[in-house]
User: Fold this.
Amino acid sequence: MKIVFFLFSFLTFLFSFDYKLKPIKLNNNSYYFYGKEEYFSKENGGNISNCAFIITKNSVILIDTGSSYEYGLQVKKQIAKITKKPIKYIINTHHHPDHFLGNNAFSKSDIFATNFTKEEIEQNGDLYIINLNNLVQSAMQNTKVKAPNIELKSHELDFDGYKLELLYFDGHTKSDLVLYDKNSKILYTSDLIFNKRTLATPHANIQKWIKSLEELKKIDYKILVPGHGVIDKTKKAINENIAYLRYLDNTLKESTKNGLDIFEILEKPVPEEFKDFSMFKEEFERSVINLYSKYESLYQK
Ligand SMILES: [Zn+2]
Assistant:
């Protein structure tokens, strides 16, 4: 029996997906892992979003856990190369599967999220796994739903003396948590920001999202860590995201008013200002298909 178990563990090790993760340093105690600007695939193992961690005096705070158990495990291994302190605290910024499905690699950690995010994970987590089993396949091995166990309500968290400010927004989903580290002036925006990567809108409210971005702009940060794309040390990413959402909103409004169908909208040329956005074609198409009927009922005469 022991031999069978050993062989099984050895084979799982041999065939486990290698995410080739490398933490990118933000300052002396903060890092992030950059996710590929792609859609879920077998080739990327679902590594399509960023996660980040902060090393405090006695522990590590991890912001989001990626899209699989294996990704979570490899994050843990990479962090262990930098510090032996335990990852005591995990924060799930929102309920999208590329941000929380690594949770079950962290059996000893407390997982924090808003009540909405927690409930979405509890109710729909298994559906996300079924969907990703199809798209990502083998890298999803051993991924199980581990829902957050602590509900966030306060505006500040004290992790053994290390304080983080919590900002509750919406627009990308119904609950988008932003973390502001006053010590380092690093702002973790989760998916409210896609830097140079076309915004994903499956659960979006465009007007609320724009409002949230206008608020984010007021924050005095040195580094903005987005949910997707590279970091930004200016307000550029926020402004570009507002411009994209306005473009999407106006295009859908005008097109449905003028009786254009989905295909006619998708034929429009890519505006100059978004030509360097990755995944423009795929995400713009997804957004138009998702949102068309809503705008049609509102604006078509
Ligand atoms: Zn998201």
Residues 168 and 177 are 5 Å apart (CA to CA). The helical segments are 2-15, 69-82, 97-100, 115-135, 206-217, 236-257, 262-266, 280-299. The longest helix spans residues 236-257. Residues 94, 96, 172, 191, 227 surround zinc ion (CB under 6 Å).
